[in-house]
Amino acid sequence: MTKARLFSGMQPSADSLQIGNYIGALMQWRDMQEEYDAFFTVVDLHAITVPQDPVQLREKTRRTAAQYIAAGIEPSKSTLYVQSQVPAHAELAWILSTITGFGEAGRMTQFKDKSQRYGSDQASVGLFTYPVLMAADILLYQTEAVPVGDDQKQHVELTRNLAERFNARFGETFTVPEPVIQKETARIYDLQDPTSKMSKSAESQAGVLYLLDDVNVTAKKIMRAVTDSDGVVRYDRETKPGVANLLSIYAALTGREISAIEDEYAGRGYGDFKKGLRDVVVAEFEPVRARALELLEDPAELDRTLAANADRAATAAEETLSAVYDRVGLLRRG
User: Fold this and answer.
1) Where are the alpha helices (DSSP H) in the chain?
2) For 121-134, what is each residue's pLDDT tens digit?
3) Is 112 annotated in the active site?
4) What's the fold here for domain 5-186+298-328?
5) Model pTM?
6) Catalytic residue among 114, 221, 240, 274
7) pLDDT for 87-132, tens place per residue?
8) Is 114 an active-site residue?
């Protein structure tokens, strides 16, 4: 039986992924690769919509790919590649941009947010057309399933609209993808500011748990996490955001119910609770960290793995792109 095709990816925006990326994406991708014909990519073309240092971008791309593999995304089971190594992504994005309305693109919330943050003079045309490139990423592989969180639903809807518009205008060409609402995972908040989502771009790194942090650094961050003064391990997002956040992490990594963890630490205070969470996080992260660093010690071999997967992706992408060029009326080189 042919597996349905799935596509997803992350930007190489930091030297290390953080625990929110791990729980919200990588853990779920690891399971999805068993069920789907999965394409997972490091979206470096998306990354350059804001200024990047070229040397650092190349290094971050390798490090992100290494963490995918170390977390269990297997190149033998999934097609794991770097976006820019398959030129068809950019080629299809241009075609799709010609059927995307200016107002339609301008309504995308990510562009609004980033252009407000950086200022309209600093917001690039690439940032404006970011969702069109994302649509190309998905449609290029005749993707049937796209795992999404709340912040990406609008982009998947645009992708569906563009697929339907192209099909109506030029004939059936694209599979119209369906969003796969990822299984409920708690939003992970900053350990020092548990009212703010944990982010690689946080002003202070003290509240961010990175996959590639040294084990002692990870342990210290957890032991210093903000809680409250009443000493009761109980989930209450409104009045006990720090404790609730730590409980969410504990439950996500162990697969246990929050109520069972509350019962285990009843009457024991925050010190014991944090030590327990520290042990859980370290046990989960340490083999991932070790494997990622091992992969990065041999960048040539990692590059060969990614190139082989890019070849596999390019074969699938070229089939779609060829059909698109033919439908649109472009004269392809013989």
Assistant:
1) 19-21, 27-35, 44-47, 54-70, 88-97, 102-106, 109-118, 125-128, 130-139, 153-170, 215-223, 241-254, 258-264, 269-296, 299-328
2) 677 888 888 999 99
3) no
4) Rossmann fold (3.40.50)
5) 0.92
6) 114
7) 999 999 999 999 999 888 878 776 666 666 666 667 788 888 899 9
8) yes
